[in-house]
Amino acid sequence: MTAPPDVRGEVAHAARVLARLGLVTAFGHVSARVGDDVLVTPATALDGVTADAVLTIALDADALPADAAPETWAHLAVYRARPDVAAVARAQPEAAFAAAAISTELVPLHGQACWLGTRVPVHEPARLLRTAGLAAAAAEALGGSDALLLRGNGALTTGPSAGIAVARMWLLDAACRVRLATAGHDPRPLDDGEVGAWRRAGPPLLERLWDRLAGAPGTCGNCTQPGA
Q1: What are the tens digits of pLDDT across the range 61-80?
Q2: In Å, what is the CA distance from 78 to each residue of 90, 140, 148, 159, 177?
Q3: Which single residue of 79, 90, 134, 215 has CA 20 to 30 Å from 125?
């Protein structure tokens, strides 16, 4: 099917915001599912991606186009395993490298971290997801969570839109920094009731967060709050 131009624009815009947040350098990608196709950014730095550059790949593809990033397999694998996921962001926050090196999973230590899932698993091994098989294993590790740490390889996040997937990457970076700050201090995770309450409140607040991240030129990937 032909993707609506606004979806291509949303993917490109989300990719540029991801770069502006400082969560990617030369690597990283953003995608969205449209019917049986996946719209994904090409193998290039995300700060200059335009809607015209966004690639279209069939969800059931058995090969990637030459200008696709090899780890596009990770996007396809998540969509194949999770029909509820409409968008994926892939990035390499420094805090994600550190948190994945000392944890087997993240549990929510603050309310906004609940919007990443009841837990964020850490995927082993530390390898690039450059084949369908390796990507499928990562998608299996993701399970029903909204985010996944890839040991030695950054992270991926999901969402109902490309913008929310990027907002969750910002939240994951924050959650990883909180985990690192509390290491060795016996932090108290939120209990099930607290997590459930935060997750129920999440959808409109995530949209508000994305609006702030997308529109604030002073937003910084290393700040505690957007625009702080």
Answers
A1: 999 999 999 999 999 999 99
A2: 12, 8, 11, 11, 25
A3: 79
Helix axis angle for 5-20 and 162-182, nearest 10°, is 20
End-to-end CA separation in angstroms for the chain: 42
Residue 215: its pLDDT value, please? Answer: 87
φ and ψ of 64, to 5 deg: -105, 150
For residue 115, being part of any structural domain is answered with yes
For residue 126, give the CATH number of its domain: 3.40.225.10
145-175: string of b/e by CB count within 10 Å (b at 16+)? Answer: bbbbbbbebbbbbbbebbbbbbbbbbbbbbb
Dist CA 35 CA 15 (whole Å): 21
State how many domains the chain has. 1
- In the DSSP assignment, the letter for residue 68 is B
Nearest-angstrom CA–CA distance, 113 and 172: 7
Distance CA 28, CA 165 (A): 13
What gap in Å lies between CA 20 and CA 206, rounded to an integer? Answer: 18
pTM of the model: 0.91
- Would you call 81 exposed, middle or buried from its count of C-beta atoms within 10 A (0-12, 13-18, 19+)? middle
- Whether the Cβ atoms of residue 46 and residue 25 lie closer than 8 Å to each other: no
* C-alpha span between 189 and 118 (Å, rounded): 11
**Contact, 16 vs 47, CB < 8 A?**
yes
Helices (H), 21-124: 72-81, 94-102
Contacts of 179 (CB under 8 A, 6+ apart): 99, 102, 103, 106, 109, 187
